[in-house]
From TrEMBL:
Belongs to the peptidase M18 family. Its cofactor is Zn(2+). GO terms for molecular function: aminopeptidase activity; metallopeptidase activity; zinc ion binding. This is M18 family aminopeptidase. It comes from Mariprofundus aestuarium. GO terms for biological process: proteolysis. Keywords: Aminopeptidase, Hydrolase, Metal-binding, Metalloprotease, Protease, Zinc. InterPro entries: Peptidase_M18, Peptidase_M18_dom2. One of its GO terms (cellular component) is cytoplasm.
């Protein structure tokens, strides 16, 4: 695959994936098109554990997914794994969200993850996610929805009303963030505006004869997102600008490396939800999803342990590029450059799972794939983030390296990465799988 085709596919993937649910749905469609077989955790699989060629995937909570190609016995050859996450910091709608103030309708939101909040103001926002409802047959059903168009905005307070806005403005997550949806009609009963009624109309509009009509909304998980499409920007087209680069970029890169995998090495991709809030959930990395799947592929506890001893995990999550306006925030000699290649992330306190052996292996694969490689260490006087890498290494006892693509504005509503770096990472993962 050429760089241009890869990057165009990445932009389309992100645009189609405003929430973890939509990201998994998109990955499912791509895997099925590539000939992968869908499995259910509720049913017996009857797989041969590498005794024959098998390409399968399984999802959990519609927001996490594991896909794999098995070509050789796991016990002798292990499995090469890539891990990423489907979630990104965002604004999630509260259960009883309606707010009417000054004749306007707003929705109460909760901040999900460590979002950079300032960039959310004055953006064209839409809403997407999963809705659970009771249908006319009396059954509980679930459907993904996406308004797609801009339906909301969080207006900034004019500088005339806050003269210190550029020097000393703080954001109150409770009072400053509720998005504005509409101006209520004059003399209307403000209490009659119901968000559930809006959702019901939206769901039934999407059903349109394809299933039983929804009669009552029971619950939902909905997130606001910026409708501005991903784009290639820069005077020479050096950059990818988009929401959710952290970490849909890694999800797509791992997915394409797996789909394009033509070798004999056993290969697996896991994309977990809830990494941005600690991974503590059934579908997060601290849940048993990956271990459960791997255990079903091995025929005993002993074969599982022996398989893990012969296996490897690459935890792919974005890295901080050295910012030209804030170079002093980086450790000297460890400031990754955009379009300088994937980054090996190291932390002595095990916030990243990289050790000298796993880091050396990744460097070797980069050399074989003719891809440049960089290193990142956080300044000793600053706190370090983490990934699913240490969690997975702890849960499975598998050798793990933490890597990522250099990124600006991580956790903003619009992040920036290098057009070359995403393709560099794909080439390394493709070589690693093959």
């Amino acid at each position: 695959m050429q760089n241009k085709d890869f990057v165009n596919g990445l932009l389309d993937f992100i645009k189609r994936s405003p929430t973890p649910f939509h990201a998994v749905q998109t990955m499912v469609e791509m895997l099925e098109y590539a000939g992968f077989k869908r499995l259910s955790e509720k049913e017996a699989w009857g797989l041969k554990g590498g005794q024959g060629s098998e390409s399968c995937f399984v999802t959990r909570n519609d927001s996490s997914i594991i896909a794999f190609r098995l070509n050789q016995p796991l016990l002798e050859h292990g499995i090469h794994m890539v891990g990423a996450h489907t979630d990104s910091p965002c604004l999630k709608v509260k259960p009883n969200p309606e707010i009417t103030s000054g004749g306007y309708l707003q929705l109460g939101v909760e901040v999900y993850g460590g979002a950079l909040l300032n960039p959310w103001f004055d953006r064209d926002l839409s809403l997407a996610g999963r809705v659970s409802y009771l249908d006319e047959k009396g059954e509980v059903a679930h459907r993904l929805i996406d308004w797609e168009k801009a339906i909301a905005v969080i207006p900034s307070l004019a500088i005339h009303l806050d003269r210190e806005a550029n020097e000393n403005r703080k954001i109150n997550k409770q009072t400053d963030l509720p998005p504005l949806l509409m101006k209520l009609p004059e003399n209307s009963d403000e209490q009659v505006v119901g968000f559930s009624a809006m959702l019901l109309e939206m769901v039934n509009g999407q059903i349109a004869g394809d299933g039983a009509k929804a009669v009552k909304v029971l619950d939902y998980e909905l997130s606001f997102y910026d409708v501005q499409a991903p784009a290639i920007i820069g005077l020479e087209g050096d950059f990818i600008a988009s929401a959710r680069l952290d970490n849909l970029l890694s999800c797509y890169t791992g997915l394409m490396a797996l789909i394009d995998h033509k070798g004999q090495q056993n290969a697996l991709l896991v994309c977990n939800d809830h990494e941005e809030v600690g991974s503590v959930s059934a579908s997060g990395a601290q849940g048993n999803f990956l271990k459960s799947v791997l255990s079903r592929l091995c025929d005993s506890d002993e074969s599982f342990s022996r398989t893990m001893a012969s296996s490897m995990m690459i935890s792919a999550d974005n890295a901080h590029a050295i910012h030209p306006n804030f170079a002093d925030r980086h450790e000297p000699n460890h400031g990754p450059i955009i379009n300088g290649g994937p980054v090996i992330k190291v932390n002595a306190n095990q916030r990243y799972a990289t050790n000298s052996e796993s880091g050396a292996m990744f460097r070797h694969w980069c050399e074989l794939a003719a891809v440049p490689v960089q290193s990142f260490v956080v300044r000793s006087d600053m706190a370090c983030g983490s990934t699913i890498g240490p969690i997975t290494a702890n849960e499975l006892g598998v050798s793990t390296v933490d890597v990522g693509v250099p990124t600006f504005a991580m956790h903003s509503v619009r992040e920036l990465a290098g057009r070359l770096d995403a393709y560099y990472l794909y080439r390394v993962l493709n070589h690693y799988f093959n």
